[in-house]
Amino acid sequence: MALADPAWIVLGTPFRCLGVPADARRDLAALLQGFPTLQPPPAEAVALRVEANGGGALLLVDGQGSRWDMAESEAPLSSHLEYRLIDDAIRRAAGRWVLHAGAVAAPGGTCLIVGESGAGKTSLALWLWTSGLRLITDDLCPILCGSLTPEVFPRALHMDADYSPRLLARLPPRPPSYPAAYYPFPERDAAPLAPLPPITTLLVLERGPDAEGALELLSQSEATHQLVKAVIKSPAFDFGEALADMLRLARRCRCYRLRSSTPEGAGERALAALTTTPASAGQVASPAA
Amino acid sequence: MSLDLGTTFSLAPGVQLEPLGDGSAVLYSRDLDESLSLNHTAALLCSFADGQHTIAMVVQEMSHVFTASSIDEDALVACLRELADRRFLRWR
Lengths: 289, 92
Description:
The complex is a heterodimer of chains A (about 290) and B (about 90).
Chain A: E1 7-10, E2 13-18, H1 22-31, E3 37-38, E4 46-52, E5 58-61, E6 67-69, H2 77-92, E7 96-100, E8 102-106, E9 109-115, H3 121-129, E10 134-137, E11 140-144, E12 157-158, H4 165-170, E13 182-183, H5 187-190, E14 199-207, E15 214-217, H6 220-230, H7 239-252, E16 254-260, H8 263-275
Parallel strand pairs in A: 2-4, 9-14, 14-16
Antiparallel strand pairs in A: 1-2, 1-3, 4-5, 5-6, 7-11, 8-9, 8-10, 12-13, 15-16
Chain B: E1 8-11, E2 15-19, E3 25-29, E4 34-38, H1 40-47, E5 50-54, H2 55-65, H3 73-85, E6 89-91
């Protein structure tokens, strides 16, 4: 008898996926390979189910009981499952803020990258990773409430957008059988190493007029505003608690707006700022020339 | 409401001023579940929202801080009006 699929632990919640056809199971396991697993799955694991919907169509039912008709979707089932599982995990996340943010570990501490959708957070995070910094996340960054410690979020990198050829040329080859439009989270960075360094830098990424990246010092109040905006508002979201933690985070960070018209410009500018001697946490440093 | 230089103002109930180390500040309203990001000047202005300082006194206080430039009373009052309109401040 074959072993059951494991439960994946995402943001502290164990999840299992039931009724998934074999090809989608393989792809789903690849997409979630960075997350820790439990085998056998615990009884309390939240179940996402794939059910027959008549005529060979499939229905996806998530842990909240919401249903999606897969016949209406162009995306592969594995992609849908991964997305719904992560979404459900964020809703259930306890004791963590989950920010729409990229993050890397730099010599002076963890750097958070926030910005509007399409600003280039993933490109910048990947540029910094391929420059030698540890990738923490390209998209969603969990931060423990209270201690404000960041956590690695080893989600597969969703690379369905057009990326700079210079960035793509820096990435290691994609495993041949890996699901299309995704790239595996780097294994060495997903592995639990020493605790991540505290967050000491915030970059607010924006498209700018010049190819070369330009850094502008941000006030701590503006940094607080950007951090609160980046927090995903789950059903249990409490604005006052989030604000209190983001105020504390802004107080200890160097905060910059980074503008560039190219991912290369943003990447090189950020790299220069992150690999030069940092100011002490809590101080505001002048932007490098 | 018509304002004169003798008008005083205070933070609305449930509003908290969070000063930050670089001179900026955040105003948080528990009732509205909203926050505002204040630059150095607006943060300083709100620090006088104690129901005791009149607008005239605030102008004088701020002229001691910003010695190089004259204080634009109209801009200051416009900022206070906006905060009052957004229910972060009330007139006394």
